[in-house]
Amino acid sequence: MFSKILIANRGEIALRVLRACRDLGVPAVIAYSDADRESLPVRLADEAVCIGPASVPRSYNNIPAVISAALVTGCDAIHPGYGFLAENAYLADICQQVGITFIGPRPGVIERMGNKAEARHVMKESGVPLLPGTEGIITNIADTRQIARKIGFPVVIKAVAGGGGRGMRVATSEADVTRSVSMAQAEAEAAFGNGDVYIERYLDRPRHVEVQVIGDNFGNVVAIGERDCSLQRRHQKVIEEAPAPELPKKVRENLLKAATRGAKAANYTSVGTLEFLLDQEGRFYFMEMNTRIQVEHPITEEVNGIDLVVWQIRVAAGERFPFKEDDFQPRGHSIECRITAEDALNDFQPSVGTVGTYVAPGGPGVRVDSHLFSGYTIPSHYDSLLGKIITWGKDRDEAIARMRRALHETVITGVNHTVPFHRAMISDPEFRAGKVHTGFIPAFMERSQDLLNASDREERELSQDEPFVKGRTA
Ligand code: MV4
Q: Where are the domains of the chain?
């Protein structure tokens, strides 16, 4: 095991990794920016070292600063969390060169999976289902129009370096293809410095189902169940659940098998996620692979009884992963609500300020992963995630009932936040019926808008229950 770990991140995930280090008995150092000096993970860590000013490129994304922080504090490993440098192959490479273990996959694997055309190629070779599309990147527009015609419309043009929907364009006709390709290329070049794009068949309102995998340094690769992450707004996940509701047993089996096969083909080590799109007929297609621990990992932990961050650290330290696929049968159901400092009534405008009162929910089946405390000032430089409320129940209904209870108990004053939005979502009959898909939140927003604009809006704002009300309550 490592002698000391540098946590190169902030917020709730820095705290989550710190907790794993405590459970392992490994001392941890937090690398923090000026803006996070007063944060909870900094206070709770064994040591903390400032790596620069609030600005992300000058602190959390500053590779020399992160490496120096690890070296001067005597750390032999770096945990990157998610976001920031978590999928930076160059950091993983430098770590190797200076004798520090990067807690994640090898640099070559990060790089290969970070390129979606290459990832597609690896998956195709290993027999993982893909949507019909180009084998590699688009080089010739005349050929592309013909390929698009063969695939059938609509098609989607995606950036190989993309993610989160950036550099993505849907084309509904052959004339559309030419324009969409150049727009996607320009957008990708501007956003990622890489204008390469590929094309594939576009699915209407698919479900987003992803599979958690873990690999060790001995060639063991195990799938640890799936999560449904269809409930997204502008490519940001809002609510996730495990197992995926209404997924036929046989489809699930094949999905997990495909994910294992794909991760093996990628020579994967560490925790990772293969994302799939699921169509209305229950067919699934590989979309992309994430080479990091993800925000929504706790729901997998809750239904499988495993600490993914602890095992991520253990396999990075050279331990063998001792479980097989069959050791994981999901027990009950888990749901996660991401609580962000955003104003759901005002187009999810970020809200900054100082938290007045914070009361976290608790009781049976409730877990809160959050760095929040009363008096905490939310820095404006970073993403707006305040934490996650995770519930577990013997079945989906109980997990939902407990989420309802947890959201009802939660008090956060001083900033706008999404707890009221979640209260409304959790109470929605379509959500309760498990009818989730990637078009759900846009449709839900439409439905709720009428209620919000109704003349009794003022009255609703006094209510703790649905429809959702301003976060600045209590
Ligand atoms: C798609 C798709 C439909 N068909 N690809 C959005 C983000 C990026 N990771 C991929 N995305 C999509 N790719 C094909 N061929 C629909 C989406 C998509 C989506 C996917 C998952 C969750 C939410 C989404 C919202 C809109 C579009």
A: 5-103, 132-201, 207-462
Global model pTM greater than 0.85: yes
Dihedrals φ, ψ of 455, to 5°?
A: -65, -20
The verdict on whether 292 is a catalytic residue reads: yes
pLDDT surpasses 90 at 261: yes
Atom 14 (ligand 1) nearest CA: 202
Q: Would you say domain 5-103 falls under CATH 3.90.320.10?
A: no
Q: Hey, what CATH topology would domain 207-462 get?
A: D-amino Acid Aminotransferase; Chain A, domain 1 (3.30.470)
How far is the C-alpha of 396 from the C-alpha of 246, rounded, in Å? 11
The residue whose CA is least distant from atom 25 of ligand 1 is 438
pLDDT at 139: 87
Instruction: Count the Cβ atoms, other than its own, within 10 Å of residue 327.
Output: 12
Best mean pLDDT range from 181-185, 196-200, 313-317, 443-447: 313-317
Of 292, 314, 367, 396, catalytic: 292
The fold of the 132-201 domain, in CATH, is Dna Ligase; domain 1 (3.30.1490)
Pocket of ligand 1 (CB under 6 A): 131, 156, 163, 165, 200-203, 206, 208, 232, 235, 277, 287, 438
Instruction: Specify the ligand 1 atom closest to the Cα of 201.
Output: 15
Q: What is the pLDDT of residues 353-404, one digit of tens each?
A: 999 999 999 999 999 999 999 999 999 999 999 999 999 999 999 999 999 9
